[in-house]
Amino acid sequence: MSRNYKISDQSRLHFLSFSTVYWVDVFTRPAYKDILVDSLNYCIEHKGLQVYAWCIMSNHVHLIIGTPEANQSDIIRDLKKHTAKTIVKAIADNPQESRKEWMLWLLERAGKQNANNKNFQFWQQHNQPIELNTTFLMEQKLQYIHNNPVEAGFVTEPHAYPYSSAIDYAGGKGLVNITFLD
Length: 182
Known about the structure:
Order of helices and strands: EHEEHHEHH
Strand content: 5-15%
Helix content: 40-55%
Shape: globular
Strand order of the largest sheet: 2-3-1-4
């Protein structure tokens, strides 16, 4: 997977991680992961987000992103706001969700502790951005993202995990419309 990446001055790239409150394992069900996938693709198509790598784990997300023309922090804010509302509603409306009451209770509890929320808080507020301004950092974070599901024991090969861009880097087509680096 080693490449010689050309880091563009036009689009500052960042590695971001964001997690659910209390590290709740929400993303164990495909329906909730699919909401995040759809939202990433929407932001790519309509808001100017460029996703170079991504992975959804059980309670957190890793991304390598860039935005040559748009405000990156505004896009991530909107993405997190939309996915939070949509996923909380999906949990509440899912008759097969065995953890529904417990998860909604935790999300409501977190929301009440934060004056910025009306009812629920889904995501932790920080994104932990790291600017990727060298080839070494880019390669390090790309490998970290793609190996995360292997390290967690979900799969034995990175490209076998469907909620990651590893399949794209292995020559296949993943769920999110990623941008490859030069």
